[in-house]
Amino acid sequence: MLSQKLIYVQVLRAIAALAVVMTHAQHDAQSVASKLNIPFVASSVFPWGAGVDIFFVISGFIMVVSSSEFFEQPEGQSRFLKRRLIRIVPLYWATTTIFLILMTAAPSALNSSAPSLNAVLASYLFVPWENASGLIQPVYTLGWTLNYEMFFYAIFCSALCLSRMKAIIAVSSVMAVLVLINRIISFPLPLSFWSDPIILEFVFGMWLGLLRTRCDRLPISICLLLGGVGLFLFHCDFQQPTAFLPAVSRALAWGIPAVALVACAAFLEARQDRGVFSRSLQLVGDASYALYLIHPFAVRGVRQLFERSGMDHLFGPWGVVFLSLPASVALAILTYRLFERPITNALRKSLEVRGPRST
């Protein structure tokens, strides 16, 4: 199964999800620091929000390496679409529903106002929608990434009637043309959202996936070099302008190092025995979708605990960060084991959908 074959890709998923948690934990820590009237400087050693870009590259990669049974098959498109919907929809809909309930019950804790009915429907249907603040975000804001994911799945699904190589070329061409035309004439919503250059990260991942299907390993020195280059480029964060260079598009500034890290993980497979640490990270990787969606509840819960108990005076804003990480992981693993995995398995069985569980 894929979860057994691509261990280090699962580990990288865990790291990417934890990077996103770090982003939001530091945001809440900043609020605590402001309340205490003390300085707080967020860590800039890594652009933590780039965990999303790593996810996008992994998504493109996984679609290629795990979909060989669907290309040029009579029922390939319907089976692929069922598998994607089963994987994405239940937990996202459940999370969005919980958020709406909490928004109604305790709006001050979430700092959110009631959305319109159209915004709610658009959120459940993965359609980009402009909210009351003028931002293109779903009701549960983390769902913005899923709006891109579902768009990519739709295009990828439409190309499954072709051979793998032709499908990759077709999907790459469509997405590149959308980005190019949008920069010239600016599409209206929702197409303008789906034509952002960030969608090219899925394309990068697809071509890396094709390479992985044709070459299952690289010299370990090359893998480590790729990993080192990826981390270095992330640390440099070329999305930020400097005195010497202008800002670079996110798709390149964060997409290219993401490709390097995913390549490192993909070609390191089956090289070493796994220890307790890597097995633990794999478990977090298996629960990475839950970790991505659920962690804001844990982070905000930790912040509320600190502010109401006086722990903020004792441990300061960094205490919020350090407690938010394990709290988010624990909640994600519980959600994965008690909700996501049972629901996914039940739906797969009822709809007779075959395929790796971890994709």
Describe the protein in words:
With 359 residues, this protein is mainly α. Helices cover 71% and strands 0% of the residues. Helix 10 (200-214) packs parallel to helix 13 (255-267). The longest helix is centred in the C-terminal third of the chain and has 41 residues, at 311-351.
Report the span from N to C terminus. 10 Å
What is the makeup of the main sheet? none
- Mean pLDDT figure: 91
Range of helix content: over 70%
* Uncertain regions spanning at least 5 consecutive residues: none
Strand content is under 5%
Topology record:
Elements: H1 2-5, H2 7-36, H3 51-65, H4 76-105, H5 107-110, H6 117-124, H7 144-158, H8 164-185, H9 191-194, H10 200-214, H11 220-236, H12 250-253, H13 255-267, H14 276-286, H15 288-309, H16 311-351
Describe the structure in brief.
With about 350 residues, the chain is an all-alpha fold. Helix content is about 70%, strand content about 0%. The model has no long low-confidence stretch (mean pLDDT about 90).
List keywords for this structure.
single chain; 359 residues; mainly alpha; 16 helices; 71% helix; globular
